[in-house]
Amino acid sequence: MYLITVLGNLLIILAVSSDSHLHTPMYFFLSNLSLTDICFTSTTIPNMLVNIQTQSKAITYPGCITQMYFFLLFAGLDDFILTVMAYDRYVAICHPLHYTVIMNPRLCGLLVLVSWVTIVSLFYGTSLGVYLSSAGSHHSQSSATASVLYTVVTPMLNPFIYSLRNRDIKRALRRLVGVATMKGPIVLGLRKCL
Question: Which of 14, 24, 32, 185 lies deepest, with the highest CB count within 10 Å?
Fold first, then answer.
């Protein structure tokens, strides 16, 4: 799931940056969401995978503080970007004639800088359930499942929810893969079959 999250979000970033038709506010925010999702999952999942492999749950205090800092930072950025994306869509739908004036490049940059809609009840419901549950009723199996839901599943689904059902992104991905196949025998790290 971690590899799907990273690769799916990386494809979105590459598609948006390589296709000039996608240089619009909506896709700008989408590529920022993808980058944030990669960073968000990368703060905890690699360490978790090592801990599972070594069957160790140890983490140093500075390591824990650093991990929590980046986890909360990227979770907050995720929320703010989703809020900005919701505002972008609101302006596009409710004020279509004023869209280009309102959503100018300066405002888009400012919104990404300052911000990044609540990621869905899945994220907050499970995270609050894990961290606010009392120690007496705290079951490690259920909290581990909830933690995986909001740290891995949500960022993994974002590329599918926000872009892979989108015609423009599909077209850009086809162009991206087509250009990669024309440039050489290696396509996205995989050997091309002849």
Answer: 32
CA distance 88 to 36: 18
pLDDT per residue, tens digit, the chain (194 aa), is 889 989 989 989 998 999 888 898 889 999 999 999 999 999 988 888 888 888 888 888 888 888 888 888 888 888 888 888 888 888 888 888 888 888 888 877 777 776 546 555 555 666 666 666 655 555 566 666 666 666 777 788 777 777 766 788 888 888 887 766 666 554 444 444 43
Q: Which residues of 162-187 are buried (b: 16+ CB within 10 A; e: fewer)?
A: bbeebebbeebbeebeeeeeeeeeeb
Contact (CB, 8 A) for 158 and 120: no
The CA-to-CA distance between both ends of the chain, in Å, stands at: 29
